Amino acid sequence: MEIKNQLQKIESLLPEIDTENSQVSKASVGWHLEHSLLIINSSLKGLTMTNPEDYKPKFSFKKFVFLNFGLIPRGKIQAPKQFFPLEIPTKESVEKLLNLAKERLESVKNLPSKSFITHPFLGDFDKKTTLRFLGLHTNHHLKIIDDILKK
């Protein structure tokens, strides 16, 4: 699913923000939404801050598996603390991050293809790979949310 569509899905999930299901996740729907948006916003901002001439792709087996199969084991990988919501997510906090994500997604469209971010575990991602990563990561959390909402 394209990031633009995922942002629409996130918006549609705002009424469920407080829903929890401890059998699926320790975190609420709102936590997963906010976490996903923090990753999206940070990554899109990162693309604007790097020098494309510094992009040095390296092969990584983990990166290959993730990008080609989208495998993210649930509960096995701990995100860096800066991507954890600081407080209990509210409709307002998620909406603010959602609007920022929409703006940033527009702003990266005309960046050079070698604009990049450095993922803490998987290395450098160029613009296209960054967008793929964001789609896979967001999809991972949207699947968790779907399971939370199944009750």
Question: Would you give an account of this structure?
Answer:
With about 150 residues, the protein is mainly alpha-helical. It has one domain (about 5-150): Four Helix Bundle (Hemerythrin (Met), subunit A) (Up-down Bundle), CATH 1.20.120. The protein is about 55% helix and about 5% strand. The protein has helices at about 5-10, 30-50, 60-70, 90-105, 125-150; strands at about 115-120, 125. It has a two-stranded antiparallel ribbon.
What's the short story on this structure?
The chain has 151 residues and is mostly helical. The chain has helices at residues 3-12, 29-49, 61-69, 91-107, 127-150, and strands at residues 116-119, 123-126. Helix 2 (29-49) packs parallel to helix 4.
What descriptive keywords fit this protein?
single chain, 151 residues, mainly alpha, Four Helix Bundle (Hemerythrin (Met), subunit A), two-stranded antiparallel sheet, 5 helices, 2 strands
Secondary-structure class: mainly alpha
The Cα radius of gyration reads 15 Å
> What is the tally of beta strands?
2
Determine the N-to-C terminus distance: 24 Å
State the CATH topology: Four Helix Bundle (Hemerythrin (Met), subunit A)
Bulk shape: globular
Report the average pLDDT across residues: 92
Please summarize the sheet with the most strands: 2 strands, antiparallel
Order of helices and strands: HHHHEEH
Q: Low-confidence stretches at least 5 residues in length (pLDDT < 50)?
A: none
CATH class annotation: Mainly Alpha
Which CATH architecture would you pick? Up-down Bundle
Number of helices: 5
User: Please, how many domains?
Assistant: 1
Q: What share of the residues does DSSP label as strand, in percent?
A: 5-15%
Percent helix, as a range, is 40-55%
Give the strand order, joined by hyphens, for the main sheet: 1-2
Protein name: DinB family protein
InterPro entries: DinB/YfiT-like
Organism: Epilithonimonas hispanica
